[in-house]
Amino acid sequence: MTKILAITNQKGGVGKTTTSVNLAASLAASGQRILLVDLDPQANATMGSGVNKQTIQVTVYHVLLGDASIQASRVTGTQGKYDLIPANRDLAGAEVEMVELSQRETRLKTALEVIAHEYDYILIDCPPALNLLTLNGLCAARAVMIPMQCEYYALEGLSDLVNTIKRVRNNFNPTLRIEGLLRTMFDPRNILAQQVSDQLQKHFGEKVYRTVIPRNVRLAEAPGFGLPVLYHDEQSKGAQAYLELAKEILHA
Ligand code: ATP
Ligand code: MG
What is the CATH number of the domain that holds 144? Predict the structure, then answer.
């Protein structure tokens, strides 16, 4: 059965998109059939996949509003060897426009049901907010992956997210669970990062991925080339870490 993962954290800049793009490419590199859904008006996952947000005509926005089929929006065979449902700035309006529509929380879920059987994994890159777009991601998903930086306020934000997940479970998606917490941009020499990491493991135990994503400049440069880091510098620590994460997920 297709595994649909929402990559979510309402905190901005924690590595959601970097994880979405690079995990998609790493899973695809091990022969998995992958679809990446860009659910953020910033469209960073679209650009990071080498798809120009300025020129695409049909996006996830049209799909959510029922103006296009999901197949019509799909970009097949990106350079990262996965398929993409792209986004652009139009998506910022979807929030308001969807309020009027029926089943506004489950529109992505319904759309994905049509093509889910074609994939082993579907990854959904959520925006940095607990809004209707993220809600659509959480309703469509089987599980949530939470990338986070081990900083002082990280744990505080986590409780809001955990409460939102509980609410989605009660109202829309009873089997939604947390798949795992991913430590991103990790610097082991930073004492605070170590402490937060220890706390995280104490609270969430097995839910914390063993794989840690280090801070690595190659990961930050790769989107500038429209490439996952794997095809920018395969030997880099960043590329190796996401390959390791893919392995951990596949063998879980
Ligand atoms: P937003 O909330 O705005 O959607 P995000 O959670 O998707 O942000 P990213 O865009 O993935 O976060 O990352 C934020 C910034 O940090 C980007 O410039 C990215 O290139 C950089 N970055 C992410 N992960 C790493 C890493 N492991 N090492 C170095 N830089 C990183
Ligand atoms: Mg992002």
Answer: 3.40.50.300
As a whole number of angstroms, the distance between CA 238 and CA 225 comes to 15
Range of the domain at 244: 3-250
Number of domains making up the chain? 1
Two tokens, residue 181: 């917490």
Q: Is 180 exposed, middle or buried (0-12, 13-18, 19+ CB in 10 A)?
A: buried
Amino acid in position 9: N
Cβ(15) to ligand 1 under 6 A?
Answer: yes
- How far apart are the C-alpha atoms of 108 and 33, rounded to whole Å? 19
**Residue 81 CB–ligand 1 contact under 6 Å:** no
- How do residues 74-133 score in pLDDT, each as one tens digit? 999 999 999 999 999 999 999 899 989 999 999 999 999 999 999 999 999 999 999 999
For the CA of 182, the nearest ligand? 1
In this prediction the pTM is 0.98
Q: How far is CA 141 from the centre of its chain?
A: 11
> Residue 217 corresponds to which tokens in the numbers above?
């400049």
Here the tokens at position 109 are 């879920």
Q: Which ligand is nearest to the CA of 147?
A: 1
Joined together, the tokens standing for residue 142 give: 């089987």
Do residues 118 and 74 lie in contact, with contact meaning Cβ atoms separated by under 8 Å? no
What span, in angstroms and rounded, lies between the C-alpha atoms of 67 and 251? 39
